[in-house]
TrEMBL record, chain A:
<feature type="transmembrane region" description="Helical">
    <location>
        <begin position="192"/>
        <end position="212"/>
    </location>
</feature>
<keyword id="KW-0472">Membrane</keyword>
<keyword id="KW-1133">Transmembrane helix</keyword>
<feature type="transmembrane region" description="Helical">
    <location>
        <begin position="52"/>
        <end position="71"/>
    </location>
</feature>
<dbReference type="Pfam" id="PF06149">
    <property type="entry name" value="DUF969"/>
</dbReference>
<protein>
    <submittedName>
        <fullName>DUF969 domain-containing protein</fullName>
    </submittedName>
</protein>
<keyword id="KW-0812">Transmembrane</keyword>
<feature type="transmembrane region" description="Helical">
    <location>
        <begin position="158"/>
        <end position="180"/>
    </location>
</feature>
<dbReference type="InterPro" id="IPR010374">
    <property type="entry name" value="DUF969"/>
</dbReference>
Automatic annotation (TrEMBL), chain B:
<feature type="transmembrane region" description="Helical">
    <location>
        <begin position="31"/>
        <end position="51"/>
    </location>
</feature>
<feature type="transmembrane region" description="Helical">
    <location>
        <begin position="6"/>
        <end position="24"/>
    </location>
</feature>
<dbReference type="Pfam" id="PF06166">
    <property type="entry name" value="DUF979"/>
</dbReference>
<feature type="transmembrane region" description="Helical">
    <location>
        <begin position="300"/>
        <end position="320"/>
    </location>
</feature>
<feature type="transmembrane region" description="Helical">
    <location>
        <begin position="257"/>
        <end position="280"/>
    </location>
</feature>
<dbReference type="InterPro" id="IPR009323">
    <property type="entry name" value="DUF979"/>
</dbReference>
<protein>
    <submittedName>
        <fullName>DUF979 domain-containing protein</fullName>
    </submittedName>
</protein>
<feature type="transmembrane region" description="Helical">
    <location>
        <begin position="215"/>
        <end position="245"/>
    </location>
</feature>
<feature type="transmembrane region" description="Helical">
    <location>
        <begin position="57"/>
        <end position="79"/>
    </location>
</feature>
């Protein structure tokens, strides 16, 4: 067993700890592991190039940018904010828990690209969450405002991750099935996907409790401010 | 029929526009960066076809271009634009009101509709859409329809839309490319045997005759390896091959479906913790203009830790029923 390629992992960890630019860290790590494994530079360049081109999918968020940019210029975020401010009984807990449940359900049916950080969080959910927080505490300080936006993004991630695995045709389910089949264990995708349900429920419950506590802290801070 | 190839072309147009506007404003580093990405998206299928046919020169050039991208990003010559807030001059919020939500909601609505037709309306769907990549094609159709609606409602020219997307791309900057680069790193790690080395190290450390120790090592291994690779998909074959199958399933008789499914989901908890999962953790921090790159991770780590614990306990009771 050649342990030298592990040097790439060390480069990644050291680079992130030193807060170097992630693009540089990743390329350096790739070359470190490649050279340590005895790959020649032409082979390594071809390997990097081939996998870079093969993995274009995650960049497709940019397809939403023209629409979102145009709507933002016309005041979409401003309007989303004002609309939530006018809704009675709205707060961060109710807004984000609803979004969490919706995101999980949509992902369970394979509709993963329907929502996302570019599509829904930045133009809609984040300004709405800020407005909802303002309804609890009118004078929202800058750090709390940032944390509210970050929580909106975190909620999107939790909803997506722990919903999509329940979907039969999702890549992860097929990857698990394929891996087990290669090892001689043949299972139906449904059989694997169903075992993701308990975790999906637990994820919803845990994150909802955290959102409730977030809401509670907002309300508590208001009371101390008023006193 | 709409294919994935058309989706790449659409992305290339958006990237090309960014290169064009940056070149016009003499932001040469940004222009070079987006020009390289335009070529990768427009020529990607041809590059891959040449590679499969045995001509490695195009992929080698892309490999060298990736190094150039990293150098442009890493030397700080590519300043990140601010995502300027709407100024009163362009805001039509008062006039348009709820109509502004229309195109924004059209993206998910049309995406969902196209996806469902492609997957579940047998004669029609496969005629219209390449079903294998239905969700990405559906997203592209949704964005296009929404764009037409948005230009009509806001009475703007389509070029204005490309100007806005270029502005947002310059704000996202290299962060939007990082996920692709991390995937490439994953391939290098896989090809150089990093996974096998990790698995063999783990195998040397754990006491294999205790099923609790094996289960905990499997769960922790999924989390740690996902944190390193930024992707649970990369961690799964390593950990399932190293611990899950040989020790948990074969030696201790665990249910393979549970080990597979819950193991992967435990890996997802690791995804919530790592800057390596850039598209989920770093890109939104930039999109939401957070001061810290790690702002999103800071809000989600408690959920991830508690859920990982719950998951491991669930795995124990469900796998050894």
């Amino acid at each position: 067993m050649n342990y030298w390629p592990l040097i790439g992992v060390a480069v990644v960890v050291a680079g992130f700890l030193a807060r170097l630019n992630p693009m540089l860290v990743v390329v350096a790590a790739g070359f470190a592991s490649g050279v340590a494994a005895g790959l020649s530079i032409p082979d390594l360049l071809a390997l990097v190039g081939e996998s870079f081109v093969s993995n274009r999918m995650p960049m497709l968020v940019i397809l939403t940018l023209p629409v979102i940019g145009l709507l933002e210029r016309a005041g979409l975020r401003e309007h989303a904010h004002r609309w939530i401010l006018g809704l009675r009984g709205m707060n961060v807990f109710r807004l984000l828990t609803t979004y969490l449940g919706l995101r999980q359900l949509l992902a369970m049916f394979g509709l993963t690209t329907v929502c996302g950080h570019a599509q829904t969080v930045r133009p809609l959910i984040a300004p709405m969450a800020e407005a909802a927080a303002e309804k609890t505490r009118a004078a929202l300080d800058a750090p709390t405002r940032e944390r509210t936006r970050a929580m909106a993004a975190a909620t999107d991630n939790v909803g997506l991750f722990f919903g999509e695995d329940v979907f039969l045709a999702f890549g992860a389910v097929l990857l698990i099935q394929g891996f087990l089949a290669k090892s001689g264990i043949v299972l139906e995708p449904l059989h694997i996907a169903l075992w993701a349900l308990p975790t999906a429920i637990a994820a919803f419950a845990i994150h909802a409790v955290r959102l409730a506590r977030f809401q509670g802290r907002l309300a508590a801070a208001r009371e101390t401010n008023d006193a | 029929m709409l294919k994935l190839a058309h989706v790449w072309w659409l992305a290339a147009i958006i990237l090309g526009a960014a290169a064009f506007f940056d070149a016009r404003h003499r932001r040469w580093a940004n222009a070079t960066f987006w020009a390289i990405m335009t070529v990768v998206f427009a020529g990607g299928d041809a590059i891959l076809a040449a590679h499969q046919a045995g001509n490695r020169l195009p992929t080698q050039i892309v490999g060298a271009a990736v190094v150039v991208l990293a150098l442009i990003a890493g030397t700080g010559i590519m300043p990140r634009a601010s995502t300027a807030n709407v100024d009163a001059a362009t805001s039509q919020a008062a006039r348009l009101g709820h109509r502004l939500f229309g195109p924004a909601l059209l993206i998910p609505a049309v995406t969902a509709l196209v996806y469902i037709v492609a997957k579940y309306v047998p004669p029609l769907g496969p005629l219209l859409v390449e079903t294998k990549q239905a969700s990405l094609v559906a997203l592209a159709v949704g964005c296009s329809v929404a764009l037409v609606a948005a230009t009509m409602i806001t009475r703007s020219a389509p070029t204005q839309a490309l100007r806005e997307s270029s502005r947002l791309l310059d704000a996202l900057s290299w962060a939007v490319v990082l996920p692709m680069l991390l995937a490439a790193l994953g391939a290098v790690f896989a090809a150089t045997g990093v996974g096998d080395a990790v698995a063999s190290l783990v195998g040397m450390i754990i006491p294999t005759d205790s099923r609790v120790a094996c289960l905990v090592a499997y769960a922790l291994g999924m989390i740690v390896f996902t944190v390193i690779m930024g992707n649970a998909f990369a961690a799964f074959p390593v950990m399932a091959g190293g611990i899950g199958l040989p020790l948990l399933v074969k030696q201790h008789g665990a249910d393979p479906a549970v080990i597979g499914s819950l193991g992967m989901l435990t890996g997802y908890c690791g995804t919530l913790l790592t800057p390596m999962a850039a598209n989920f953790n770093i890109v939104p921090a930039v999109l939401l203009e957070l001061k810290s790159q790690y702002g999103v991770i800071r809000e989600q780590w408690p959920t991830a830790i508690v859920l990982a614990f719950v998951n491991t306990v669930l795995m124990y009771f469900l796998a050894f029923r």
